[in-house]
């Protein structure tokens, strides 16, 4: 019989450190599948940040590099310029990319560096016990907004795709989620296009993935997925925000 399931070669068979219901494991597998499908394992370099994804290199059998908090796009830029034949991507959370790393992501997009950025948005600081993030929704309760995020005191959620879409150097920007098999398939397609954009030397691409954090949302995994569909997508609508193909 022909197998219907197999582990990607790029995905390391090791116990996970992620919390139950976390979306990082799904995303890791999708990245591994794409690297296998494109046959680029020997030439791919990933950047791990500070945050929940700090140990991404434990799961992907490729060359990986650790970057200081918020600095993966800057380190990725240096690696790509020295090794333009390599496929370079950063894997970042919302605290890493949208807070301390905001300057790096904006200027990397402005220069249209030919890298791929994978942005995992769970609207909370997961590694440090659930404080408010730049992407926390209005009225969402976190460790530092126990009454809910208030725009008067805490500001508004930052929409990264919409922000970067105003920058001329951005070539491919998309937001997706992993809340259903249909959305997971779509996420894989968008991630693959992000990698292909780099292979075809089109310039800067970013794929934002809405992902659950059940532990610090104080929800069970099923309710966390429903929260993304019912609440997060209202603030962060899914779709493609910039596409080099449609601009040609």
From TrEMBL:
<dbReference type="InterPro" id="IPR051457">
    <property type="entry name" value="2-oxoacid:Fd_oxidoreductase"/>
</dbReference>
<dbReference type="Pfam" id="PF02775">
    <property type="entry name" value="TPP_enzyme_C"/>
</dbReference>
<dbReference type="GO" id="GO:0030976">
    <property type="term" value="F:thiamine pyrophosphate binding"/>
</dbReference>
<dbReference type="InterPro" id="IPR011766">
    <property type="entry name" value="TPP_enzyme_TPP-bd"/>
</dbReference>
<dbReference type="GO" id="GO:0045333">
    <property type="term" value="P:cellular respiration"/>
</dbReference>
<keyword id="KW-0560">Oxidoreductase</keyword>
<dbReference type="InterPro" id="IPR029061">
    <property type="entry name" value="THDP-binding"/>
</dbReference>
<protein>
    <recommendedName>
        <fullName>Thiamine pyrophosphate enzyme TPP-binding domain-containing protein</fullName>
    </recommendedName>
</protein>
<dbReference type="GO" id="GO:0016625">
    <property type="term" value="F:oxidoreductase activity, acting on the aldehyde or oxo group of donors, iron-sulfur protein as acceptor"/>
</dbReference>
<feature type="domain" description="Thiamine pyrophosphate enzyme TPP-binding">
    <location>
        <begin position="58"/>
        <end position="209"/>
    </location>
</feature>
């Amino acid at each position: 019989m022909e197998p219907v399931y197999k582990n990607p070669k790029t995905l390391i068979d090791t116990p996970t450190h992620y919390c139950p219901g976390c979306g990082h494991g799904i995303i890791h597998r999708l990245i591994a599948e794409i690297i296998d499908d494109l046959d680029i394992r020997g030439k791919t370099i990933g950047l791990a940040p500070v945050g929940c994804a700090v140990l991404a290199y434990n799961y992907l059998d490729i060359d990986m590099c650790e970057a200081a908090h918020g600095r993966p796009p800057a380190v990725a830029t240096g690696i790509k310029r020295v090794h333009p034949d390599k496929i370079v991507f950063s894997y970042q959370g919302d605290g890493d990319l949208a807070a301390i790393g905001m300057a790096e992501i904006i200027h990397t997009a402005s220069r249209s560096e030919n890298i791929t950025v994978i942005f995992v948005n769970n609207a909370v600081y997961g590694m440090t016990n659930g404080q408010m993030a730049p992407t926390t929704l209005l009225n969402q309760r976190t460790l530092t907004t126990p009454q809910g995020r208030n725009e008067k005191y805490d500001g508004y959620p930052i929409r990264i795709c919409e922000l970067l879409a105003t920058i001329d150097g951005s070539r491919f920007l998309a937001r997706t989620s992993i809340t259903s098999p249909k959305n997971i398939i779509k996420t894989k397609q968008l991630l693959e296009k992000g990698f292909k954009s780099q292979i075809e030397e089109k310039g800067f691409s970013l794929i934002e993935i809405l992902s659950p954090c059940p532990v610090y949302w104080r929800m069970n995994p099923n309710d966390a997925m429903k929260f993304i569909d019912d609440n997060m997508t209202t603030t962060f609508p899914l779709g493609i925000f910039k596409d080099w193909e449609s601009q040609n």
